Amino acid sequence: MFSILSTIWRVFLHMFSRRVTVQYPEQKPYLAPRYRGRIILSRDAEGGERCVACYLCAVACPVDCIALQAAEDAAGRRYPEFFRINFSRCIFCGYCEDACPTYAIQLTPDFEMGEFHRQNLVYEKQDLLIDGEGKYPGYNFWKVAGVAIGGKAKGEAAREAPPTDVNSLMP
Amino acid sequence: MATVYIDGKPYAVDAHQNLLDQCLSLGFNLPYFCWHPALGSVGACRQCAVKQFKDEHDTRGKIVMACITQASDGARISIDDPEAVKFRAGVIEGLMLNHPHDCPVCDEGGECHLQDMTVMTGHDYRRYRFEKRTFRNQDLGPFVNHEMNRCIQCYRCVRFYRNYAGGRDLNALSIHQTVYFGRNQDGVLENEFSGNLVEVCPTGVFTDKTLKRHYTRKWDLMYAPSICVHCATGCNVSAGERYGTLRRIVNRFHHEVNGYFLCDRGRYGYEFVNSDKRVREARLNGNAITAEAAREHLREAVERGRAIGIGSPRASLESNFALRTLAGPGHFFSGIADRDQRLVALILDILRRGPCRVPTLHEIELCDAVVVLGEDVTNTAPRIALSVRQAVRQRSFEMAEKLKIPLWLDDGVRDAGQDQRSPLFVATIASTHLDEIASGVFRGVPDEIARFGFAVAHAIDSAAPSSGDFPAARGIADALKGAKRPLVVSGASCGSEAVIQAAANIAQACGAALYFIVPECNTLGCAMVAGGSLDAAFRLAAEGNVDTAIVLENDLYRRAPAPDVDAFIGNVPHLIVLDSLLTRTAERAELLVPAGTFAESAGTFVSGEGRAQRFFEVFPPDGVRESWRTLGMGRWSTLDEVLADLPAELPGLARARDAAPSAKFRIAGAKIAREAHRSSGRTAMLANINVSEPKTPVDPDSPLSFSMEGAEKKPPGALIPFFWSAGWNSIQATNTYQREVGGPLNGGDPGVRLIESSAKEKSYFAGVFEEFPAEGGEWLIVPIHHIFGSDELSLSAQAVAELVPAPYVAVGRESFAQNTMVRVEIAGQMFLLPVRIRSELGARVAALPAGIPPLAGLPLPQRGTIEEVK
Ligand code: SF4
Ligand code: SF4
Ligand code: SF4
Ligand code: SF4
Ligand code: FES
Asked: Which ipTM was obtained for this model?
């Protein structure tokens, strides 16, 4: 009897406490940039695709919902020929972002992805690729990598000496 | 056996080996780079450092390199000693100073020995902040990609390429910091084994250029144990698939056959599986029909009667057997032309009768005197040439042993041996790549080679018939008599029975091992299924006795002259062809049924050694089936059922069943996974088609699963889809599958040898020779073989096709000038060809490249005429 009354009393007291329920969707909550929502693929400052199709996000994914195929342009730059995420399987763990060596794949604070048909949750590269750098401005993998691509020859990456002259016998 | 104390615990080791080898054999994770089980030790990289102590009271010890320290009895070493650990981490850090930030775009990544060793030593943070050295890359041709920045100067590449494989155009160039591994200038790597650089190089300097076109990481490929289909050697390979196309071939270690290395035809020939010449759907008179309708059509054709089956030396044992069962034993033909079939029958007969033993490739490497009779081994069975190259090193091993230099100490053995080689004699039509290490060569047309061979046999044993006077024969005879393990290598490629007989005589006379090279991956198997020759089928059809001919995976235009094949097809009202590629024969078929390639089917091949070896489906076929399934017409539902029916019909092939465990085999109740446990993309690969993942297909023919789920323990040799161990992601993981590093696989090496003879008596061939030169204006036209071009299937492989020579006719010096256009008339056909000078060819002897279209199908040697086109 006493416990019932005390419970009613406590419920009654709650009427005067501050409301935490947010009136979503009229009211949008603040989500930090590092919130793990819809995944995007970003571009570097020069507008090039950041993803180098290394497959690391795919292998890190615990539900195996990322599939891609690497391709290479004539000048040697790698990019994904296709890049697919099956969001109906994605658990938004962010491992792909952790694994990505180029900051290409990023999770965003957008979680409004509801669909009536699961099939619509399969995103292809054109659905994922955005025009900006996302959360990590300034990084361009190709500027620190040793492979030559169009516009960056051997020895032109950061902290690289000019290519050696194989015929030189100078000590 | 000796006892070595490792970190205080005693272990039994092989005292003839080095410490690194023994530590790895015992399962210790000791990092290394420059040492390779097949290449030995040089102590160049300093990565395998351990602490060695004088005795149990010594607490200071000294750092030694495990790979150049003998595992002597009582030795005390420590792998975990803090100083040794620090030393190894320091070496890695040093190697990484200049290493580029490439892993994400490096094709080695995920199977990189450098990554593995870096992780193993715990070097996980780059402190170096200064400039890195860079190099320019070279274009090394269609097989191998070059990215020199990644080099750690371990010298493995040049040690393999130059010392092991005899290549000359790759070298260590420049000096100190800037040592460069490449060619003098850009250009196709000349050596036939260049593809092994991909596996030998512990970093991403050399990677597979064909894989790069459709790049996939090691962990994402679906693999099956397979057998190379590009010659009769029977090298074991691992084939990897992704998204429905075959992506690459890597070596699958087999101690007795291919060891650690493949030839480039075998590594890169796989691309034919992805070729646009593939037959993917059934066609009736050129119109696509369903598989059901095709089967119905086939059944009607057989029921109509007077159907014959034409088998194939490139189809599996099971498919040939299924065709023989369908058509009836009396109506089965091997699909090999009469003269070739006679050669193979003769070879089989010699091997079965004995007394000569057929050596494995490993045994070939141990032979200390070799005679090659009539075969350009490098171009007809390339991997065997690599073994012969090791055989000539036997003399230097003997010299090293006398000087008490351990055989694994590579530089020491090479210095002691200098240029000393065991005797190798090469008797061939034209010059070969083995000539450069031969102690003597003989050039002649096949009959001259045969005479020469008979003379050698006679010089060894006067009971063997003589054939004339050859001064060189004496020397060869003495060398063979003086050898402990002599070897004769011959084969069918020069089209001469007399050459084969001569080889048998020599081998019998000196008790040598005898290896015959036959043309295709299942030539011996097909011959053992026992059918009439192709010519017999042609005759039957000409008599009007054939209503339907069912041709199994065979392009008849590569077996017989085109006019004969045209006539045959004209004589057969209904031509049914099962094939994987749209060949000239397939184009003429009334009913064309797609056949699975080795990658889409399971079956057995019998290699030149007589070893029956199983290959398995790499990926579930999409519409294409094994020919034995199609031809079985529902008689068999699994491979095991076919193999169970085989012994009753063909007792000689009964043991083929034991080539691999049956489909019921399980490890602790589990199947063996074709995919790595970290294979990715399972829920996304096909999501564009349907978001619900399809059910994993079941493979009724093997204990392998089409998924990442499988037993945790390592499978037996015949069922190893790929090599991987925790901490060992690169191909170096092979070490962990062997009984002892470099030795046989755990549980024995796969395959069963079907031909073993116990006979003791010698029986010499008498030898019948054809006279040459012919009268009039005739030429004798002989075959020349090409590693890239003479094999049918690899002709349709993109990278290999780039290196296939254009058709030509080779003549000696004094007839025509280089590049003259000539008209060659042979076997009722006429060809316009440019002349290439091969000065070894005698007067009125010409040579045509075997198997290169449109010259395929010509019965060589053959007489013909050659005239300059005005
Ligand atoms: S990890 Fe990053 S760079 Fe690599 S494939 Fe994924 S998105 Fe592309
Ligand atoms: S060689 Fe190995 S460590 Fe170097 S970039 Fe390639 S994968 Fe990375
Ligand atoms: S190219 Fe490869 S094998 Fe050759 S020295 Fe460099 S790292 Fe070693
Ligand atoms: S030697 Fe023959 S079987 Fe071996 S890899 Fe080369 S082509 Fe294949
Ligand atoms: S492996 Fe021992 S020094 Fe290189």
From this structure: 0.93
